[in-house]
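Data deposition worksheet. Section B asks for the primary sequence of the deposited chain exactly as it was used as input, without tags or linkers unless they were present during the calculation. Section C holds the resulting structure in C-alpha cell form. Section D is free text for depositor observations; keep each observation to a single sentence. Incomplete worksheets are returned to the depositor.
Section A, Depositor: J.P.
Section B:
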Amino acid sequence: MKTSRCLIVCLTALVSSAVFGQQAGPLQSYPVATAPGLTKFDLDFPGGTPGELVTAIRTAMGRPLNAIVPSEDAKLQLPPLKLARVDAAQLFHALLMASHHREVHIGTNSGHKQSYDYRDVYYGFWTSGPATDDSIWYFHNDRIFPLAAPPKFARFYLLTPYLNRGFTVDAVTSSIQTAWKMLGAPTVPDVSFQKDTNLLIAVGKPSQLDTIDAVLRALRAAPLTAAAPSK
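Section C:
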C-alpha cells in the first residue's frame, strides 16, 4: 500500500514537471502537450496491462484513443495510476519517467579488469510529432532488448611443455571442458588444437578463458608421473 501511494505521489509530481516543460536527458524529445486542446480527464487505474490502461483511459476520456501494444508486451504489469485533470500525453510522459531506471552490465576488458556499461531503460507509450487527441500511440518496452554481448577474445596456449611432460591434448582439453561444465556455463569458448604448432587456440569471454589459464597452471605444478615421450 505504501509503495502504491508513493508511486501515485511521484507520478503526480512528474505530471506537474511535464506541464512546465521540465524535461531532461534522452526524454527531451518526448511529445508533452502544453498547448490547450487535448481532452482532460481524471484517472483511477488500479494497475494492469498496457491494454487495460488504454481501455481505462478511453472510458475516462469518453472518446477513442488510438494505441498499439505489441503482443510481447501484452501481459506486462503497469503500476496503479491515480491522476486528476491530465491529458493522454501528460499521463504517458509520467508513466515513462516513473519506469525509468539504469541497468548495469559488468564485463571484463582485455586487461582482465572489470568494466561497467550503463544503459538507461524505460517503457511507455510514444507517438510521432505533436500530441493530439487523434495521435497514434505505440507501446515500447526497452527492457525486452538485452544488453550487447561482451566482446570475445582470442588466447593462444603453447602445449609443447605439457606434451613433453607426458600429458596428451585430450587430457588437457578434457580437464578444461570439465571445469566449464562444473561451473555451469551456458556457453563455452571455441577451442582448436593446431598439430603443426602445438598451439591451443581459444576464443570466448575473458572470464571463461581464465579457466584455461588456471588448468594449465595446475598442470605445471603437478608432479611428473607420466613418462616423457621419446624423441
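Section D:
The beta strands are 41-45, 66-68, 81-86, 101-108, 114-121, 123-126, 136-141, 153-158, 190-194, 199-204.
The CA atoms of residues 11 and 98 lie 7 Å apart.
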